[in-house]
Each structure stands twice: as structure tokens, then as C-alpha cells.
Amino acid sequence: MSTLEVEDLTAGYGDARVLHGIGLTVGEGEICAILGPNGAGKTTLLRALSGMIKARGRVRLGGTDLAGRSPDALARQGIAHVPEGRGTFMPLTVEENLRLGAFVRRGRDGVNADIERIHGYFPVLKDRMKQAAGSLSGGEQQMLAIGRALMSRPRLLLLDEPSLGLAPLVTRELFRIVQAINAEEQTTVVVVEQNAHLALGIAQQAHVLETGRIVLSGTAEQIRADEQVAQSYLGYR
Ligand code: ATP
């Protein structure tokens, strides 16, 4: 089970509180899009969920209470975070980056099979295994970052602005692959994305965050149909 339940989540930096009582539920195997203007707290929400920053409130994944756990413990519980800027190790090869992604797993069993599985999603990485990650294009680096996250066999995948800096064609391909991963592995996905069209295109549900609070929630269709969202994030009406 990998339903994500978040209740009354509060987080920030030092004395500055950024998130104020966030509540949301993402059903097992669903994709949830988080939309909102710059500075709304979207990245902070993902950081709180993966334990990168301390948060108060309740977070459960598959019914297990995860509040207050360390990033390592959360990774072992199946939470994988692909941060904005991707977080790949540039001097290391593609293969080394992928193998590092398996570090949270107890056994080494199946690592090679998982690398093959990731090549299935991202064939371009197969041809680049011995290359330094830093020599990859932006799109390939994003694929590597997602591939590395998949090496931990996550139950919950947190994606922060996967489209950042990528050409529209590359972004569309990336979102298609995220959708395939979600469909094939039943991985629950929370995606923060400026490109609301794309995010709503793959998500079942979405939340709009403004100044650290959820101001609108609904199915992707409901959010797309909202007048305010259309004006602010979809660029029409
Ligand atoms: P963007 O799309 O611009 O990344 P966002 O919705 O992801 O926006 P956050 O990055 O979560 O927003 O930022 C929310 C607030 O937290 C902002 O006011 C930001 O200045 C502040 N903030 C973000 N990171 C830090 C940090 N490391 N230290 C202090 N304040 C931070």
C-alpha cells in the first residue's frame, strides 16, 4: 500500500514558516500535481515530505506514520525525491549514479535487473553508461535523476519541476515516461510543475498552493476548468 496521507503539515526555514497546515491525500498509484506561483512553498512541501527539512504534522505512507523521520529512514520507507536541479553527481558516470540510487536497499539482489528496467524506460541512458553525468544533455540528466530515484524501488516518487530548462519536446517525452512508470509500477507520484498543462495532462488530481496554503483542490479536470487557474497557470480565458 502506498497511499500518501498528509495532515496539518507545517514547515519552514529557521523562524520563517512557509507551509501552514497542508492536508492532502494521494491514493496508491495516483499522480498528484502541485501547482502555484513562485515562492508558494511547492519545493518546501516536497522537502518536508522527504525529510530534507523538519516538519510538524502527520505524514503517512501506506498507513505507516513517517512524521519526524530522517531522510535516510524515509528513503528506506520508499520515498524518493528528485529535486529541482536534479541532484545527479556530475563527475560520476551514468552507471555509478544509477548504482548509488540503490544504496538504500538492504540487499544488492536485483540491482542489475533494475538497471535493465530503467534502460527500458530511458533507452538513451543505456548508450551513456560509461559517460560522466555532467556530459549529458539537460533532458538526459533529468532522465538519469529519475532513473536513479527508481533504483530505490520507491513507493512514492517526488518530482520537483522536471521540465525546468528543457525543450518542450523533451519535456513531453519525459512526462510520457513518468506516466508509464506510474502505470507499470503503481508508484504514487507527487509532481511540482510550472507547466500546468503537462502536469494536469498526467495527473488524476491537483492542488494549488499559494503562500503556503492549499487554496484549491480537485480532479485534474476540475482544476483545469477553474477560471482562476486557467487565467493564472494555463494562459487562457
Ligand atoms: P519556486 O517555483 O520559485 O521554486 P516554490 O513554490 O517551490 O517556488 P519554495 O521554493 O518552496 O517555493 O519557497 C517558499 C518560500 O520559502 C519562499 O519565500 C522562499 O524564499 C523560502 N525559502 C525557500 N528555500 C529556502 C531556504 N533554503 N532558506 C530560507 N528560505 C527559503
UniProtKB/TrEMBL annotation:
Species this protein is from: Nonomuraea jiangxiensis
GO MF annotation list: ATP binding; ATP hydrolysis activity; branched-chain amino acid transmembrane transporter activity
Residues in ABC transporter domain copies: 4-236
Superkingdom: Bacteria
GO biological process: L-amino acid transport
The protein's name: Branched-chain amino acid transport system ATP-binding protein
UniProt keyword annotations, A-Z: Amino-acid transport, ATP-binding, Nucleotide-binding, Transport
SUPFAM superfamilies on file: P-loop containing nucleoside triphosphate hydrolases (SSF52540)
Family statement drawn from the similarity comment of this UniProt entry: Belongs to the ABC transporter superfamily.
